[in-house]
Design brief:
alpha/beta; two-stranded antiparallel ribbon; seven-stranded mixed β-sheet; globular; Rossmann fold
């Protein structure tokens, strides 16, 4: 791990862009897909791309908001610069793979338990609204943070708009 950043600012201050810009800047859309990963839910092998960034959020609404931003940015980058950037999400019982993946805490933890290969290429792990994640799923948050810290060399960004300033 080279970088660990804590962003603590009020709503509307640009926290989302403050973590999306370095993430988008460091993702390599040319990293090839890996073949032959077994998906137990589908009971067959699938083509899997190693995600390079993981953004963990507390709510489905925030997940959809960030996913939508990333889809818009990737469309722009793909059409104007010839990129092949793919955005994925951990949604319900499905994992849509991509260079950047957005997911809620409990679904992300479950995915990491199922797909050990998921973390090997991670460059960035972002916890957005971290205080809310910790408040509602403290044990899952601790498990997820421990797994990610032990299994990847990712840079971590932790964002919050609320919380106790004395902690």
């Amino acid at each position: 791990m080279d970088v660990c950043v804590i962003i603590y600012c009020f709503n509307g201050s640009g926290k989302t862009l403050s973590f999306l810009i370095p993430v988008l800047n460091s993702v390599n859309p040319l990293i090839p897909f890996e073949m032959g990963k077994y998906n137990p839910a589908l009971k067959r092998e699938i083509v899997v791309q190693q995600p390079q960034a993981l953004i963990v959020v507390p709510t489905e609404t925030l997940m959809e908001q960030i996913y939508s931003y990333l889809k818009d940015y990737s469309t722009y980058l793909n059409s104007n610069f010839g990129w092949n950037l793919k955005i994925g999400r951990i949604y319900k019982d499905t994992v849509e793979y991509g260079h950047i993946i957005v997911g809620m805490t409990h679904r992300t933890t479950k995915t990491l338990d199922t797909f050990k290969h998921f973390m090997t290429e991670l460059k960035w792990v972002v916890f957005d609204e971290c205080d809310e994640i910790k408040e509602h799923t403290e044990e899952l948050f601790s498990q997820l943070l421990r797994k990610l810290a032990e299994s990847s060399n990712a840079n971590f960004i932790v964002c919050s708009a609320t919380g106790n300033t004395t902690e």
